[in-house]
Specification:
Elements (H helix, E strand, L loop, with lengths): L1 H33 L1 H4 L3 E4 L2 E5 L39 H17 L22 E2 L1 H15 L3 H11 E2 L10 E3 H10 L2
Antiparallel strand pairs: 1-2, 3-5, 4-5
């Protein structure tokens, strides 16, 4: 029994050190050396302090800010620890009711806006954490934000155009607007 148990325990200890200590240290060190911003959480800094992440949206409810996609996380929106989809299909009455309520809230926040509501302002992304909206969703909100801030419509629209990210390599993905970055640029307009 001793002849079998000792090699098994030595192998167990060796593999534990190798896969549980050495490998994670090497991978973490390589990530910090090669991709320091991503390894630190892809943080967005303002005056040297973190204000958010490139990867996780934030909840903006003030009419003076651009609003992102609805979050599917609960009870707190954009909670990365609770990332999951809403699991509501297109025929689910709960999804239909939620979309109708979101459209009503958008219309109430900007009664003069009769444009069609972009779908990404009333439906959550698959993770519930998406920090981006479409340029159409940003343009939909320009009049409300400009009015609430008493800014020229053209200057807010120009800011949206400036903050619109192009598809990767010009053809992969869709144009998008990072809501936190847009709101930070909006704050800088003052």
């Amino acid at each position: 029994m001793k002849n079998i148990l000792r090699p098994a325990l030595v192998l167990f200890a060796l593999l534990t050190l190798l896969t549980g200590v050495a490998y994670p240290l090497v991978v973490t060190g390589a990530a910090n050396a090669l991709f320091p911003a991503q390894a630190a959480g892809s943080l967005i800094l303002r005056d040297g302090k973190p204000v958010g992440s490139e990867l996780i949206g934030q909840n903006f409810a003030d009419p003076k800010h651009f609003w992102g996609r609805p979050s599917a996380t609960g009870p707190m929106p954009y909670n990365a620890a609770a990332s999951s989809g809403a699991n509501q299909g297109p025929l689910n009455p709960a999804l239909t009711d939620a979309v109708k309520a979101r459209i009503a809230a958008l219309r109430a926040a900007d009664p003069g806006n009769t444009s069609p509501v972009p779908v990404d302002l009333v439906t959550a992304s698959s993770s519930g954490l998406d920090p981006h909206i479409s340029p159409a969703a940003a343009r939909y909100q320009v009049a409300r934000v400009a009015s609430a801030r008493r800014l020229a419509l053209a200057s807010v629209q120009a800011l949206v155009d400036q903050q619109t990210e192009k598809p990767l390599m010009g053809f992969l993905g869709e144009p998008r607007v990072h809501v936190l970055r847009l709101n930070l640029a909006l704050e800088a307009l003052r």
